[in-house]
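Researcher: Please translate sequence to structure tokens.
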Amino acid sequence: MIIHKTENLLVHASAIIKQFERVAQLTGENFNVFKILKLSTMEVRTHSSFIAELLDPEGSHGQKEVFLLLFCDQFDIHNLNCSNAKVKVEKKISAISEDGNEGGNIDILITDLENNAVIIENKINAIDLEKQLLRYFNYGKTFTQHRLLYLTLNGTDPSLCSRISLKNEDFQKGSYSEDVLNWLEKCKEKSVDHPILRETITQYINLIKYLTHQTISSKMSEELISLISNNKEYYNSIDDLYDAYRKFKEQVKSRFMAAFYKKQLQEDTVMQISDLKFLYEILEDNEGFYYGFSVERGGTLLDGTSVEMRPYVDILRSINPKFRFSPPYIGWAFFDRFSKLLNEKELLFNLQDDRFLDNLITELINELNGVISELKMKLSTENVISILPSSN
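Model: Translation complete:
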């Protein structure tokens, strides 16, 4: 009887899903140039660059300061002269200071001739870096007036490790789901007589809706909720289905981990400099699958956040700015390909295929090998005594 109810739920739910899939095909919603080019979550190459181009009065859109004025209106920014504003992407302040309070790269910086500034920190999927927002706030104090805007998909708070002592009034939160979408819709209205510009903005709007779950699939979810709420007999079936899916994910993950550990590098030593031994290890937790680097002296792990280790932290971040450091690691990072793999259902299903699994593991090991090779090269300039052999 329970199996019969579960089958009924699957049949009805599948019918709703197929109906909305047909609508998406007819409307062309599934076609998005940003997704096709695999640029949907790249902060600098996609989001910062696209937004900055629209904001730039000298941008290729040819609309002068129109879009910037709309942006300032959306975020209640009144301390900027839009007519002479300059916009820069990935503005390098300076190298990060030893105490971490100064320096870094700003995603989008807008300045005017009156020495006012808007500093935009763009967060799509990237994690906050230590003291990141504090550094940008300190840089903002070099201007007559400044606005520090922390932009995320859904207007979430910055982490404490990023804001440190900053108060809520020291920065402004913004969301793609509302603020950016509202601004883009107004930009689209102003572009009605410029079809290529208008449709490009439309493509980006659809990408934001996809990332913030506001596409046709959101309406589909409402119908599925209605299906469940109007059929009490489906309640237990949902629990059974969810439990089965959870176990399926665990089985796939266990299979992946077993295959990875069987194939991974066996040597855990990167190299040795004087009495310092640089190590790496593979780690996993509920958030994902990642690798970390640590330093050992005389068999004792050193604190990766100490002043002594700071040069090595900087070396790792020069390889990949996504590296985070926390005791005992001088740096750790999620594998790019695997970071959200278990949440992507198609890829999760593909992990059951031996060839797909083997290719993915090879890709991850190559990623790790690449970081290790670059780390060796950079460390070899630091009075290296010996490079220990690594196994393949």
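Researcher: Any highlights?
Model: Residues 264-379 form one domain.
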